[in-house]
Design brief:
Elements lengths: L14 H12 L4 H12 L13 H13 L7 H13 L5 H12 L1 H17 L2 E2 H12 L3 H16 L3 E3 L5 E4 L3 E3 L2 H15 L3 E3 H5 L7 E3 L13 E6 L3 E6 L2
Helix pairs in contact: 1-3, 2-3, 4-9, 5-6, 5-9, 6-8, 6-9, 7-8
């Protein structure tokens, strides 16, 4: 990750808004219909009395659309499969899908959550000030970076993967969710690869990336990925499995 990484994730996004956006798309609503529906629903929650395009409501809607609706061509297969999992998997597993699409659409989100996950594994808890310092070391001393980092941290609390502690600005991890669906596990690994800007990584490393700290991903092998259209698994050396994005 370089200082040229686009931030973009400037608002505090709620899971229920992501769920609604995806469900509207699943129901066949057009981009404009989804945008209008979100504007109506968020009207009494964000930017009350403010119709400026730069309002927090407009920015929030833009983020929601970028995650699930207005995705680049390269992410459309990942998005489309994610929609199918939203249709067929239990509601409690939808967090993994929103997490994966948010990482893929906003690699900055993945960078912050990777930093959080690494600190949690090392210390058992994480201080917002430490996360801020490490992100600024990578992306520079910008208010945009600081503000967006705060937004991601609060999303982690809102989404139930971090919990406030008695010490202000210090968080502890919540219960980890086990992803035992092999297909969903592969989907989440693909999203993590996209977010990392790395087309190839050791399978063990990417499946346990700190960016996926709210989840324990079911182990995958070559057989699990047979026929997968976007991931290829192969052996490197004597005993290391590598996973690669197909282009």
């Amino acid at each position: 990750m370089s200082k040229q990484l686009s931030v973009g994730y400037s608002q505090r996004i709620q899971l229920e808004w992501l769920e609604l956006t995806a469900k509207l798309l699943l129901a066949g609503s057009t981009h404009n219909e989804i945008k209008t529906a979100l504007d109506e629903i968020l009207r009494d929650k964000l930017s009350v009395g403010n119709h400026n395009r730069s309002s927090s409501r407009a920015k929030t809607i833009s983020i929601l659309l970028k995650i699930w609706v207005v995705v680049p061509e390269s992410l459309q297969p990942l998005r489309n499969e994610g929609l199918e999992y939203l249709r067929t998997t239990p509601h409690h597993q939808h967090l993994a899908l929103h997490w994966g699409m948010t990482m893929a659409a906003y690699p900055f989100f993945g960078l912050v959550t990777e930093t959080v996950g690494r600190l949690v594994r090392l210390q058992g808890a994480v201080a917002a000030s430490t996360v801020q310092r490490r992100i600024k070391e990578k992306l520079g001393e910008r208010e945009t970076v600081s503000r967006a980092t705060r937004r991601v941290l609060r999303c982690c609390v809102d989404w139930g993967v971090l919990e406030d502690t008695a010490e202000k600005g210090v968080y502890q991890p919540a219960k980890v969710q086990f992803i035992d669906n092999k297909g969903l596990a592969a989907w989440l690994i693909e999203a993590a690869l996209v977010a990392s800007h790395s087309e190839i990584q050791a399978l063990g490393r990417i499946s346990q990336t700190p960016a996926l700290f709210p989840f324990t991903v079911s182990p995958l092998n070559i057989r699990d990925l047979e026929g997968h259209q976007r991931l290829e698994l192969f052996r490197q050396g004597l005993d290391e499995n590598m996973v690669m994005l197909r282009r």
